[in-house]
């Protein structure tokens, strides 16, 4: 990604399915190295917006620019090559493979070894080296040989981030990383996300766990009925009567 342009620019994003408007006129700019939280009531359009950014869904109006490059018509894998990575609300690990092998598959895909993804790993090969580094970065090195299916939900989330790191993304979309995570795992996962951002990556995160999100992000973007209601610092946004009304039904 270009160093002198915003990591992400959404220009008037709209999405209409049938007669229903899902997104309308969403314009948002995210600077390189910034962490922005996306919040809003259920059905506000947050995950749909992530689908548009990552290429899962093509908007009916507007443009998606990554580092100034228009990628609106590009597919998911094409956007991934530009440095975009994403996690999803539901776990996306291979439960029968151990943690190292899960990350190794992501590393092999990045290294261009897609034709031999299921090759038995060799000690010291490039993909295994990347996998070990990424697993250590999220604090799962002691579980490298553990089957992903038996990890706690919080550790599965860490594993997904390790898999993401193996693809070397510059812009990361985290879709509700705390969903389903037990209270005992929250602090560790927060620290992983903080390190992910601290490494210089740009992060856009949807999260319902407000205390966690407000303690991590630089700015908050509030979605409501498919529109961008407010954008600003956590304190300013949470004091906004329009935001309070969207969440609680009336200003407080």
TrEMBL record:
Matching CDD domains: ABC_Mj1267_LivG_branched
Keyword DNA-binding: no
Short name of one Pfam family: ABC_tran
Signal peptide feature range: none
PROSITE patterns: ABC_TRANSPORTER_1 (PS00211), ABC_TRANSPORTER_2 (PS50893)
MF annotations from Gene Ontology: ATP binding
Keyword ATP-binding: yes
Keywords carried by this UniProt record: ATP-binding, Nucleotide-binding, Transport
Gene3D superfamilies (UniProt xref): P-loop containing nucleotide triphosphate hydrolases
Domain ABC transporter: 8-250
PANTHER family found in the cross-reference section: ABC TRANSPORTER ATP-BINDING PROTEIN (PTHR45772:SF3), CONSERVED COMPONENT OF ABC TRANSPORTER FOR NATURAL AMINO ACIDS-RELATED (PTHR45772)
Name of the protein described by the UniProt record: ABC transporter ATP-binding protein
Organism: Agrococcus terreus
